[in-house]
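Late entry, adenosine-5'-diphosphate complex.
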Amino acid sequence: MPKEKPELSDAMRAKISKKTPQKNPIKGTKFTIAISSAKGGVGKSTFATNLALALKKIGCKVGLLDADIYGPSVPKMLGISEKPKSDGQKLEPIIKYDVQCMSIGFLTDQETPMIWRGPMVTSAIKTFTQKVNWKDLDFIIVDMPPGTGDTQLTFSQEIKMDGAIIISTPQEVALLDVIRGIKMFDKLSVKILGLVDNMSFFVGDDGKKYKIFGEGGVKKTAKDYQKEFLGEIPINSEIGKFGDLGKPIVESNPNHEISKIYLNFAEKIKSTYL
Ligand code: ADP
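Prediction complete; structure with ligand written out below:
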């Protein structure tokens, strides 16, 4: 007969829970969703900003946290050049298009490179999650840096993350990074809401679909790793154009076919959580 395991005493239980890192929710929001891409340049920030605006359009209260310390995109994509106010204790988010925003890019000169070691990045992330006056939000959308580094670790281990979405292009080389991203979130016990295939095809003047970066790879990766495939976004030059103008496509032209795709993603997220 196997011996029964002894019950843990209350003192022992308290000791163990002290050792387990505490995951703090970001104050001022109900849910925190990370937008991640294991590779750079696949459209992660474009997705994060348009998704935040789409959630707002369907009635949610939204914050956008640019956690890409080395390469912040939110100031440019939302056309923000002002500095956040502080009372010495907390930073006030900057409100643009009815979305509460915070980015390291609001605090530094746009052209100054952030030459920081890991602990400084970790400390910046803690400031943005614990010392920003986020107010009364349904969602904070976090634009993660690419890769599987300090920021991802800090978020996943210390902050209560309610879900992550992984963005990729269909290229083989990007997919390898997606697999690394999936494994990282799984290991850190962050729920992956699903995978998005960005720049999945281009529709030519002849009306035909051209699969420039290959076909079906993101969907297949999702299937292989038992994750949901959330959908695809085609290549469309309007996306970049409006992003560069500081007014993303969902805000500039909500009836555009591309905006409808982002609005669909937003509906999915809203119905999952609210
Ligand atoms: P990341 O955050 O992954 O580095 P960005 O969101 O900055 O990537 O996007 C990289 C570039 O690709 C930007 O110029 C952006 O406008 C463009 N882009 C993103 N998604 C699309 C798309 N579906 N079609 C066309 N251009 C896109």
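The first strand starts at residue 29 and ends at 36. Will revisit in the morning.
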